[in-house]
Amino acid sequence: MSTAADALIAIVEDDKEIHRLVHDLLVREGFAVAVADTGAALDQILARQRPDLIILDLMLPGEDGLSICRRLRTRGAIPILMLTAKADPVDRLVGLEMGADDYLTKPFNPRELLARVRALLRRTRNTIEAEPERRYTFAGLMIDLDTRQLATDAGVPIALTAAEFELLTCFVQRPRRVLTRDQLLDWTRGRGADAFDRTIDMTISRLRKKIEAAVPGLELISTIRNNGYLFVHPVKSLTS
């Protein structure tokens, strides 16, 4: 299934060779592309339009990629794919902690980059299309799958990354049921996900921290030792 027809991708990369390679690759595949070499240039793009995906380098002049990623996460849930020469596992973990939805190191296989771009776009869109105009409440919170928003009953929004939102959706649609890491990987990252991928654990950790910051003392997801995770609260559909 092609996702290129109406998708806009922003590339934030100061290496001219990589910049040109990624731009040409995406354009050949039918994507609309906006380019920036600094955080300030990205802000100019965001002031005019909302990309469907941002490909973000870590090492940039001025504001670095981690700072940009952290800042973007306070403004919305645009999927972010970090593309960087930093291959150390610690750098990957930090990038995901800052809110990136995926992380690919240079040098990279162009086919893998395209596969990851399409997977992120597909995951984002499928979350919207699979359950149009569906809203759920649980534990004093409300999630809207159509607008991709989570808020408290008082209307205070809780900003989530695309990966966090998709993971929470999996739990909300399967409350009080133990879900294994493999199941969650399959539903959120596809069957091609690495069995040793720790993204699920990290995403759950980030999700817990954000929920706790918004509603102190609230535990939504319990760890079931040697089995997986359990969404412990009952869920009510507002549109069923």
Order of helices and strands: EHEHEHEHEHEEEHEHHEEE
Radius of gyration: 18 Å
Largest sheet: 5 strands, parallel
Tally of contiguous helical segments: 8
Helix content: 40-55%
Using the alpha-carbon principal axes, give the shape. Answer: globular
Mean pLDDT: 83
Number of strands: 12
Instruction: Assign the structural class, choosing from mainly alpha, mainly beta, alpha/beta, alpha+beta, or little secondary structure.
Output: alpha/beta
Major sheet: order of its strands?
2-1-3-4-5
Q: Strand portion, in percent?
A: 15-25%
Low-confidence stretches: 128-133
Euclidean distance between termini CA atoms: 29 Å
General description of the model:
The chain is of the alpha/beta class and 240 residues long. Helix content is 41%, strand content 20%. It has 8 helices and 12 strands. Helix 3 (65-73) links the parallel strand 3 (53-56) and strand 4. Helix 6 packs across helix 8.
Summary?
By secondary structure, the chain is an alpha/beta fold. It has eight helices and twelve strands. The longest helix has 21 residues, at 110-130.
